[in-house]
Amino acid sequence: MKKIFVSVLLVICLALTSVALFACNDNTDDGANDFVAPSFDYTLPTDIAEYGLSIEWIGSDGNPTTFKSNRPTAIVIGGASEYNVKDGINLDTTDYTASVMASSVSLQKTSYLWNRQGFNIGVFHYENFADDTNDNIVKKIFNSSSMTYINKDGNTVTTTPDFNLTEAFISAYLKVASSDELAYSGGKYIQEVRFIGNGVGAILALSAAEYLDYLYENGAVGVGYLPDRIDLIDPYLSNTGSATVVDFYSQTTLGSALEFGSSAVAELAPKGTVFTLVESDKEYYDSYENRYSGVSVIDNTVTLTESGDSALYLAIKKNVAYLNFSESFSAKMSETYQAKERTTLDWFLYTVNGSDSTSITTQSETDIRPMVDGYNMMGTSVSTSVKYAVSAWTPTVYLRAVRGHEYNMAKYSSTTQATTSYTMERFQAESYQISDLTLDNAYAVCGYVYLKGDDTYFINLNRNQYLQDVVINITATVDDKVATYQVKTSSDGFYFYNLGRSMLGASVTISATTPSKDYSYTTTDASSSSNYKHLSKNMISTAGGVNTTLSSTATQNFFLYFCSCALTK
User: Euclidean distance between the first and final Cα of the chain, in Å?
Assistant: First the structure.
């Protein structure tokens, strides 16, 4: 959806007593579509919580801390809430008791785990406005006149501020740091900004990301503000529209949350945003006022079709790494906690530390046990391959490679070679996920081609560094059979080529053709040897490319080889 500020906001200087959202522009003769960068300078209502409409950074001990520049950053946007209960990320120990937790679970705070991984981890607080129905919160995301709230005394206030939740979030976000401070450069981690939206907070995350995208493309904010990854946790995707007036788009009314979500994901994914979607409601299609149109349910078998609401949901699934999450441990929690509808979010945030299953081998360079796709299946050794589940730990680069694929919770028995569905009975960071990746659809080489933006070997995830239409040359040899392939990088600099079963165990050469003589190859990390290390690093340093053997056999379930290329200009 192309966004143009509503013209009346561009030609009228707003006289506001509590809010001054847009910079006034006296030169209105240049046309109604001239871009005027919003200032987002406003005064908060004085009768909400002191932390209201702000981003709180959380330290290892769970207490507030300060934002630290040059680190990866994650911001959690919760869903419907209680006005007088402050949202956080640590497990509520009054509900996460011994009967709920698996014995393998560490009792360390979730905040400690995120800080251990080097992240700034923050929470956007809008609880006073989120104590409402999901439909009403959706209206607040887009429309200022819908911004009723419950004040700190418990009274409903209908005199609304002249801004909406999207603008409130962006205002708080832009005050955090400069674009350069958000864009990490150097050291151990890939530069990255993540938004993690739960429930209706997923719609706010998408709206904020779209708005930031528009600001960036109009030169109003730096590229470092754009989220590289958005995790949608049990997103609120109602198919009932409410004709909500949108304050900041040329489109004057909003359809359903489903329509908006489908449009936003489809718009942002080709530009480089990596998405995950974790869905715990098996009947999500029938969880709103009306069942999704176009969904066929016959003998408990659900089929999505390319029509109606079903087509909109399918469009989302094509652009995300999708997990069907199943648990029963929340039934042991209090009704009050269950009503918060954040159990799946709790699990997802906890998984940033990787699996807590001691049966899984640690990665030697991280001391982390990966969340594995198809544990116990052939070819899932984490020392020789990269076969990962959907989790907060999973590298963003990997999740880009499995875009459009679906994960289900299941266990595989190496003894019987049978797969059975699985429901997590106790809270833990091992969900026994099995994806739809096979040797037919994922015996492949893949990776990014990008401009090297710093002194590290890590892939630069900033959107302005991606290189589109770079030709990747692949030569594969099996016995006396030689095959050559070419594929171009997509708009986000990523390529994926499936060689197919006929080339199992092939020796391959992978090279990237520079767009012109103005581009040069850059050095790689000579210490890299494992496929895990290759995953997030520059691999191609010469025109000759990389020579390797794809050590896969017919007994393996799939095989991905990552081979990226950093260029300078």
Answer: 32
Whether the Cβ atoms of residue 547 and residue 524 lie closer than 8 Å to each other = no
Give dist(CA 285, CA 287) in Å, integer: 6
**How is the chain split among helix, strand and coil, in percent rounded to 5?**
20, 25, 50
- pTM value is 0.93
- Measured between alpha carbons, how far is 131 from 126 in angstroms, rounded to an integer? 9
- Rounded CA-CA distance 388/371 in Å is 6
Q: Which helix (H) or strand (E) holds 500?
A: none
Measured distance CA(127)–CA(122) in Å, rounded: 15
Phi then psi for 213, rounded to 5 degrees? -60, -45
> How far apart, in whole angstroms, are the C-alpha atoms of residue 208 and residue 224?
14
d(CA 485, CA 483) in angstroms, rounded, equals 7
Tokens of 238: 């109602």
Q: Where do the domains of the chain lie, and which CATH numbers do they carry?
A: 7-345 (3.40.50), 443-568 (2.60.40.10)
Q: What is the mean pLDDT of each run of 10 residues along the chain (569 residues)?
A: 32 27 31 63 91 97 93 96 96 93 87 94 98 96 95 96 95 90 65 94 97 94 95 96 75 85 97 98 94 91 94 97 97 95 97 90 79 81 76 96 98 89 94 92 95 85 94 94 96 96 92 96 81 87 93 84 94
Nearest 5°: the CA angle 437, 227, 273 is 35
Alpha carbons 157 and 149: distance in angstroms, whole number: 5
